[in-house]
Please model this.
Amino acid sequence: MRSSLTGRGAGPSEFGRTSIWCRCRKGATAVLHARGTPERLSAFSDAVFAVLITVLVLELRPPEFPTFKALLSLWPTWLSYAVSYLLIAIVWANHHHLMHYAAETTPRLMWFNFAHLFSVSLLPTFHSLDGRE
Amino acid sequence: MSELAPQPVAFYAAVFFLVNAIYISLIWELIERTPVNEVTPKERRIMHFRSIATLCVFGAAAVVALKYPLVGLGMYCCCLIVYLKPEAPGAER
Model:
């Protein structure tokens, strides 16, 4: 059955987001396209942060000898792990706080968010502070 | 006994600098679009000041770490402390 459009525009949906709607001849309103919600962006970012904070621990190695001296000699590794862990936790908390202000996912927001995740993803690679191979 | 190597610490500070620089663009993208009744001008000012000040310190830490790695590490640890509370410090809600 063919239906022709009699009206078209944008308005708030039941979730408070902007959606594009059209009114058909019989009076029925159909939502054509809903603007992206920030929930998926937040969920994706949370997943990336979770992976990164887990990957950090893979860099840790047990000391060569089972002594406190051998354990303490690895202090730069422990320190860099602690600092990296703290940084990712802080970045996640601040990102979570900022995303409360996002009403919708704009392309700019999406790409800034991907750039942010890219920069954070470099941390596990470069967090060795003692210059070892 | 292993020690902190200057170049890895400096490079690490540079990664922190990059993370903070992109975080500033996220702040601008999200906070500037938010109505004034949700984020007060004072809060905006504090958030901008905090992010730019820490960006400068991260940049300085990358340079300092080349000579004094422990001092550089201390500098960027101090920057992290101001981000422990995500809300703008000192802004009344």
